[in-house]
Amino acid sequence: MRHGKYPFIIGFLAIPLLLYAVFVISPYAQAFYLSLTDWRGLSNRQDFVGLANYAELFTDTQFWRAMGHNLALLIVVPLFVIAMALLFASATAISRVRGSRFYQVVFFFPHVLPVVIAGILFAFLYNPQAGLLNAFLRVVGLEWLTRAWLGDDAVALPAVMVVMIWSAVGFYYVLFSAAMKSVPRDVYEAATLDGAGRLRTLVSITIPMIWESVQVSYVYLGIAALDGFTLLHTMLPDGGPNRSTEVVAQYLYRTAFDEGRFGYASAIGVTLCLFTLVLAIVVMRFSRREQVEYA
């Protein structure tokens, strides 16, 4: 049996590894190869240009401006989503308030809604003439706050951030609630006897004990922030006023399908993939903590 162990394992892994190589690794390899060419997309001609696309990308101000928008999303969206999800989860999962199951359903509902539908709904909400937001501000006497929310380059990106936060909080609220319920009640009772308040308990006890969930959540939210294509292309397909909301994925799309520069667009995609990989490695490496164990 020992002599046949390795052929047995290889026999089981061969087909899954082959499928992974064909459908996962191969597209990455093809994208990297295309990034080294000047392929225009409508012909089979692919002249090899080496690193010329990456050299151009390094000095491309539009690319770096789009990357700046992604970085703004990367800072704001995960921070607010994780903070709000932790607060909501601690209020229901730890305190055991009545109707906590109902709150989980209500908070999770925006995550169930498809991103495209959410983008369309909020585009109507932000409409300067018929939108509910401006109508509400007029009713409560704050007409001076009304504006074209998606037409003002100063507030267009923050308006989209609100939608991203709204749609993501519910999922991480449920995730953190499940993690908090696994923490022994004795720990919280001891903290209460020692005079620790809710905020102190959250910071000193809850977060360290569910740190792995928080860490992974930031990675996933960071990946979503470095993408953001679906929502932004639904609400602001032209990149917003003065390209004030255009992210790298939208710039990639415009470069490929509007300008026909598929080779250069591939270089953008490969660069974005590397940024995402570096983000995941940095977060997992520098946010590593000693695991808290409890019986």
TrEMBL record:
Organism domain of life: Bacteria
InterPro entries: ABC_transporter_permease, MetI-like, MetI-like_sf
ABC transmembrane type-1 domain segment(s): 67-283
Cellular localisation: Cell membrane
Ranges that cross the membrane: 71-94, 106-126, 154-175, 218-236, 262-284
Entry keyword annotation includes Transmembrane: yes
UniProt topology in membrane: Multi-pass membrane protein
Keyword Transmembrane helix: yes
Gene Ontology, cellular component aspect: plasma membrane
Pfam family of the protein (one): BPD_transp_1
GO biological process per UniProt: transmembrane transport
Main location: membrane
Keyword annotations: Cell membrane, Membrane, Transmembrane, Transmembrane helix, Transport
PANTHER family reported for this sequence: ABC TRANSPORTER PERMEASE PROTEIN, DIACETYLCHITOBIOSE UPTAKE SYSTEM PERMEASE PROTEIN NGCF
Protein family membership: Belongs to the binding-protein-dependent transport system permease family.
Listed name of the protein: N-acetylglucosamine transport system permease protein
The species this protein was found in: Pseudonocardia thermophila
